[in-house]
Amino acid sequence: MNNIFYISNFNKKKLFELLDRKNKSKRIILSEAFGSFCEKIQFDKNQQFVVKGYKKKNIEYNSIFYEGKSLKFLHEKFPKIFPKIYYINTNLFVMQYIPNNKIKNSNSEKDLAIKISKIHKNTNDKFGFKFDTPVGGFRQPCKFQKSWVDFFAKKRLFTIFNKINTTNPMPKKINIGIEKLLKKLKDLIPDNPKPSLIHGDLWSGNMLFNNGKLVGLIDPGIYYAPKEMEIAYLKWFNAISHNFYNYYSETINFDKDFFNYSEVYELYYSLLNVYLWDRSYIHDVARLVNKFN
To answer: How confident is the model at residue 65 (pLDDT cuts 50, 70, 90)?
Structure first.
């Protein structure tokens, strides 16, 4: 497996300083989750980097490595949206730091819609990706498939539903409702939408804004899916207003029936949050399941 990449203008001496975690100077912890760390390293005003790696390696799935590979793929296609990857191996990766102050304004939502639509214009003939991709350390199966209904049923809804119920089962009534929904899925969602490249984990923490502009996206869980799958997450997370749909539709076609089935897609994200973050999301799962049973 080819697991090391270099960018020629990266100073190797500085790389070794980055990797020496005993040196606590100039290191700022940005986040710690799912056994991994994310730190900002600053050598001087013009040389800032982000290092992401394992505190305790997940032996079941190397999410750090595949997150780094995903970002490398995305930066090559969209260098103005995704950070540059300077170095990656099986334990960590080093990437560009993108300055951001989290400030939004009246134009921020339009900027988000325009830049997301650019990603979604990258299409494929099948659903999935060339390797399994992570969301919060969780492994999303991505083997390519022609049928969206089959892909979504088996590789998205059932995968996370089964993971939850083999570790900490949800109430029986909810489980029965999800099983019923899976059986009639072909009647609820489009079977033949166009596969578009999606970020896959587009919540507010992964969108970097600076003085009103979207300056970067991080922590992807990419694969080719209906673009409405991405928009469903933004809707579920209350990250957009109704204006977003108008801005988005100005640059790319949008399924007008989306609002009839968006909650089916939202269910996947709600289940992810039950498993990864907080069991309180079970109440949201119940709300979404009840809409279709």
So the answer is: very high
Could you count the other beta carbons within 10 Å of the beta carbon of residue 284?
A: 17
Token pair of 247 as six digits: 């801005």
pLDDT tens digits along 187-216? 999 999 999 999 999 999 999 999 999 999
Closest C-alpha among 152, 156, 158, 143 to residue 188: 152
From the number of C-beta atoms within 10 Å of its C-beta (0-12, 13-18, 19+), residue 70 rates as buried
CATH architecture for residues 108-290: Alpha-Beta Complex (3.90)
C-beta separation of 108 from 132 below 8 A: no
**Residues in Cβ contact with 199 at an 8 Å cutoff, skipping those fewer than 6 apart:** 116, 119, 206, 217, 220, 221, 222, 230
Rg (CA), the chain: 19
Indicate if 108-290 has the same CATH topology as 5-96: no
Q: Where are the domains of the chain?
A: 5-96, 108-290
CATH architecture of residue range(s) 5-96: 2-Layer Sandwich (3.30)
pLDDT bin (cut points 50, 70, 90) of residue 2 is very low
Question: Letter for the amino acid at 227?
Answer: K
pLDDT digits (tens, 9 = 90+) for 92-121: 899 999 999 999 999 999 999 999 999 999
Phi-psi region of 187 (alpha: psi -120 to 50; beta: other; left: phi over 0): alpha
Return the structure tokens found at 168: 């900490």
E strand or H helix at 173, and its extent? helix 172-183
Torsion sign across C-alpha atoms 14, 17, 19, 25: negative
What token pair was written down for 111? 């900027």
Phi/psi at 158 (5° precision): -65, -35
The answer to whether 160 touches 272, Cβ cutoff 8 Å, is yes
Position with higher pLDDT, 55 vs 152: 152
